[in-house]
Fold:
Amino acid sequence: DDVLKKVKIVESKCMNNEVTLEELDNNLRQTTKMASDNEQKLDELSRKLGVQEEELKRAIERAELAEAKLKGIEEELQAVGENMKQLELSAEKAVEREEKLKD
Structure:
């Protein structure tokens, strides 16, 4: 009688252990799948980050090129302004000479 009780207790423990083992195995499969999914997401995000970094680099290069062109245009504009001043002075002097010649 005592032996039967011990056998039932051991059987019960075995059943509980099997249930626990199945739960742990299920958790392990879920965790493994989650880790795999997260690794794929990480790879995708890393790839996207690389693309964004390249796009940023190209945008910076374009901005630097545009800035250099703008500087060149500003210098040309300043030179044109100086030429305009010189032309105005020359025109004024020409008008003065013309008036002196008329007098």
About this structure: The chain is about 100% helix and 0% strand. Residues 2-102 form the longest helix (101 residues). Helices lie at 2-102.
